[in-house]
Design brief:
By secondary structure, the chain is mainly alpha-helical. It has twelve helices and no strands. Helix 6 runs antiparallel to helix 9 and helix 7 runs antiparallel to helix 10. It starts with 9 loop residues before the first helix and ends in a 6-residue tail after the last helix.
Length: 215
């Protein structure tokens, strides 16, 4: 609720809470393009009530997604607390993809598969603030290949998000097998030179903002 706004009536507050809880479930089950009508129906309110509280889909996502993305903070903290830098790196990527596999909406958001607001982008940025340290520790420890850049994690997320999205209903743990192959390729003792450089931060931003087909 915006600072300075009047408190909601008790029934309106209950409806808002029901809508938020239901939206978390529906977006988690169906992704960020899930029909808002289904959220209203499952919450037991009219679509007009939903729009009274959240005028747009983005307004609803602005409330839900930052809280979901905040789970990355705990995953990153566990990774940095691991005394073995490589295990910490593995812990982070496994934890990240496990969160995505559990929540289609989060999978869409992290893969930029649906339009996101500045608030959601800021939450993603905060969630990945620790990535530089996690990657640097693993490289300094000698286990992660030296040419791996934190921006390379973005391309790994895009690839794995597609695996998760396509296999979630049929083979929900397939991403773990794919990640195992990826991780073996990231080990320093298996590295071979790669001719194409990593994305610059500016290129990464441009790629994320590039228009493209949305499922």
């Amino acid at each position: 609720m915006p600072t300075g706004s009047r408190p909601l009536r008790a029934d309106a507050a209950r409806n808002r809470d029901k809508l938020l809880a239901t939206a978390v479930r529906v977006f988690g089950e169906r992704g960020l393009e899930a029909p808002l009508e289904e959220i209203a129906r499952r919450a037991g309110v009219s679509i007009g009530t939903l729009y009274n509280h959240f005028p747009t889909r983005e307004a609803l996502l602005d409330v839900i997604l930052p809280q979901r993305i905040a789970a990355l903070d705990e995953v990153a903290a566990d990774a940095l607390a691991d005394p073995d830098p490589w295990n910490g790196f593995v812990c982070f990527v496994e934890g990240l993809f496990e969160l995505q596999a559990q929540d289609r909406g989060l999978n869409d958001a992290l893969a930029q598969r649906a339009p996101t607001s500045p608030e959601v982008e800021a939450a993603c940025h905060r969630g990945f603030q620790h990535v530089d340290r996690i990657v640097a520790r693993a490289k300094e420890g000698g286990a992660l290949r030296a040419d791996f850049d934190p921006t390379d994690l973005a391309t790994l997320i895009w690839a794995m998000s597609q695996v998760i999205r396509q296999s979630m209903d049929t083979a929900p743990d397939l991403w773990r097998r794919c990640l195992g192959f990826f991780l073996d390729g990231l080990r320093a003792d298996a590295a071979r030179p790669v001719a194409v450089p990593a994305l610059t931060p500016e290129q990464l931003t441009a790629v994320l903002r590039a228009p493209g087909p949305r499922p």
